[in-house]
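Hey,
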Amino acid sequence: MSTELKNDVQDLSLLHSQDRKIVDTMPSIVQFFPNHSRWWQNASFALPLIIAVISTSLGFLIQIDELIGFGIFLAVVTLIMFPVVLMTWRNTATLIVISSDRISAFHRGKLMKEISWGHLDRVERVEYLGNTRHKVVAKNEDFLSIENEIEHSEDLIELLFVLSKIPRRSSDTI
């Protein structure tokens, strides 16, 4: 099967090179779902940075010390958030692969978590501050998170139910 047929919705050139290697070499892929977001798109980092630049620039431009001070404060917040954002980014899936026998999550080509259909117990829908995510939970309570940044995440969940043959619960409806 050619790579293009594995996922007719995705453009492989948009994948990170390490994730593209996974898609090219992993056998029995049914579908793959990329996460095209990047670490610097995290609101905890991007918003303070943007406002710091605007506030400081505007403060120097119109000579208002309070704006300059607020900009410097937000620059410090940005610097403090930088390592936190990088640490959490390393635990974010950049690619989820559905195979005929399992679901696998990768971060830049590195396997993070894998659950075979035989070990899958349930799928939980979790809503938090207006964001919906899903937890794919194994029988040993280990889980894999499907963030809503994953492209076509609802299709991923639907395919997961079809391939794994686990029963839907009323809270699992999409």
